Amino acid sequence: MKQLQILAPGQVVWQDAPIPEPGPGEVLVKVAMVNTCPHWDMHLLAGIPMFAGGTIKYPYTPGQPGHEAVGEVAKLGEGVADLAVGARVACWRDAGHHRPGCYAQYVVMARPNVLELPANVTWEQACSLELAMCVQVSVDQLLRNDFLVGKRIGISGLGPAGLVALQLAKAQGATAVVGLDPLPARRDLAKAAGADIVLEPTAEAWNQQVGGKVDSCIDCTGLKVSIEFLLERTARAVCIFGVLRETIEYKAAYWGGRSLFGYEPHNVGAAQRALDLIAAGKLDLTSMISAKLPFTRYTEGIEMLRRQEATKICFLPWGE
User: Fold this and answer.
1) Is residue 308 part of a domain?
2) Quick one: which of 141, 41, 137, 42 has its CA closest to 92?
3) For residues 267 and 118, is the Cβ–Cβ distance under 8 A?
4) CB 36 within 8 A of CB 302
């Protein structure tokens, strides 16, 4: 088989490797397609740690950071009796970058980390299920605390996570969604995805188009300036989904009655809820795919992300 490996910053190979064998409780998946997780891809290819204070050891783990993937079960490990060879599955949880990832023609996954796809769900529709699961975790925080149903919700950062967040919020009871992003192209995508209001993240734009406060927000940027902007304009709660690298500051007068949520663990319940919404036609993950490329053009695809010419790149492990 072939697999991708980042050997050093800016240096990538699409190389031969033996087809791995699934161990007990594992399945071998023949990968059909993999979507980028833009920040992971851009950081690792540039040699920049994703999280503040982290380090990266090269050559990086083969197949990583690929994890938003779909494919067919090619072989069952010992003890796996609830899937059949040929079953169509989506990888909903990344087992960690110490294990070979999905940027490959075959990958071994722990059985609990894949979900079988309904017959009406295509590869493209399910490929970013892992991202949808991640965002659903934040949506679940709002649902649990009665901060979403019947409420007006703000989403800051209209990249892949923000586009998913606004759809999940509307599908699960938000009366209106306000999307914020400095890039006009991203605001256009959010409007097409169902956002009721889209605007630049400036006080003037907010005052003109929104007026008062929204009930709750999800921040998909991880930026100090974004989170502080939302805290001033939110009545109930702000969920931080983006990777936070700075210290948030706020004035006590702005804080009364608000909750600030950090991120919670990934879980299969969130993945299943997202998959059910995909199957019901209430969550569209296909419009984020800006281009489909073979892995031989990996660097080209990541540069498209870096230049903000694409939202997500779909890589085809069997393409030429």
Assistant:
1) yes
2) 137
3) no
4) yes
